[in-house]
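Entry type: protein chain
Record version: 2
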Amino acid sequence: VALLAASQPGEEIGAVNGFKLVVERRSEGQYFVNLYGAVNYSLGWHVSGQQVLKAAHQALSLYEFEQRIAGTQRRLAGFKAQAEDLAALVDKPFEKQARLDELRREQIEIDAALDLDKGDMSAVDDSVPAEEAVAA
């Protein structure tokens, strides 16, 4: 960090993670530092470049945390909207219910005609030997 090289108020002396690092010289030996980007942060007064970098990393950690909170809030809003949509579907009648009932009745009739509801192989002709039934 070119902290001591900052000769003019508002001079950009570098960047940290894509954020502009701007130093204003307020008094001899102390520098007021700002971080400019998607969100602006005032890093306060510092006397060394190491202090500036530490403050910048702390501010960016806060920014990343704020971004995660915002992202989580957006996802939560999406989940709430999805839950409302699903709740509306639960209350909505099944539009193909009549057709489903009809198919179930037909299935019962077919099962009764073939004696499938009596179990095992009651519909199989016992007069045909087992070997011929397998070969067929």
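Comment: The first strand starts at residue 11 and ends at 16.
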